[in-house]
Amino acid sequence: MRSLFFYALALPAVLACSIGSAQDDKSTDADQTAILAAVQSYQKAFNAKDAAAVAKHFSEDAELTTASGTIKGRAAILADFQSLFSESTATLQLASVEVDVIAPSVAIETGLAVLTKGEELQEVPYRAVHIKTKSGWRLDRVQDSPARIEPPSNYEKLKELEWLVGNWVLDTEDSSTSISCRWTTNKNFLMQTYSVQTEAGTQLEGTQIIGWDASRNVIRCWLFDSDGGFGSGAWTKSGTTWKAQTLQVVPSGEQASSTNMYELIDDSTFEFSSIGRQVGGKLMKNISAAEFVRQ
Questions:
Q1: How far, in Å, CA of 182 to CA of 162, rounded?
Q2: Which of 104, 249, 255, 281 has its CA 20 to 30 A from that of 75?
Q3: Which of the four pLDDT bands, split at 50, 70 and 90, describes residue 146?
Q4: Domain residues of the chain, as ranges?
């Protein structure tokens, strides 16, 4: 059995209906009036569950096409509506419809069909071609617009780090470090950029991309800085602190590593520190905890 929306696609809306690209000549106005009259008749027939009356609005060789297939011919369309109405009590409403008479005997209609059955509501955009016959305007081709398929998202894996989103600043006596973090489209990655400023100007800029690695079941990061350094790492949570253990290549080509700590103090403050820092096998001084404040 086809979905209920399949049967609603043929119907142009009469509620909140707007006429697009209307021409000024009288014949076009008359055609639009005739099409809207047919629309009203169709809607009335649909909600009355009168399959024969619905089928009369189609041309002899009409086609209805959806993702589930195509029905060809008025007789086949009639049979499908009879089957639908024997099982369904759904009612139809329409909105956001535009009708464009593009030729003396052809009109294009687009809109949104809404079917309601109890508390269940379904809606789908559609496109219909009307042709002018000896018997008046008839629906000749009707096709739904494919529903947007939501792309995959790793938001659920990363949402605990959503507090990073926003702008943060750390001011000291001789420098100011700013961090800006945002979601990428579809919330598959957190994109973090940073800049270190002194009186002499920008000293360093960098980017950190945080995402979910499904092959390892871990939150990973990739780092790049304006001096030419780059690296990657993994994020883990311990209590209220997030640890990013990273391996990097510094501009000289030497290997470096560190564990960067992020602890959320409240909605407006987090502490950053870095321990276990090595460059070329030599231990480096740790970076003591410093507070970033949300802007």
A1: 9
A2: 104
A3: low
A4: 4-144, 155-294
Residue corresponding to tokens 């510094």:
250
The pLDDT tens digits for 37-68 are 888 888 889 899 999 999 999 999 999 887 77
Q: What is the dotted CATH code of the domain comprising 4-144? A: 3.10.450.50
Q: Pick left, alpha or beta for residue 187 (phi over 0 → left; psi -120 to 50 → alpha; otherwise beta).
A: left
Fold of 155-294: Lipocalin (2.40.128)
Using only C-alpha atoms, the chain has a radius of gyration, in whole angstroms, of 31
What residue type is assigned to position 273 of the chain?
S
Q: Cα-flanking dihedrals φ and ψ of residue 284, to 5°?
A: -115, 160
N- to C-terminal Cα distance for the chain? 56
pTM for the whole structure: 0.55
Look up tokens 């949570």; give the residue: 237
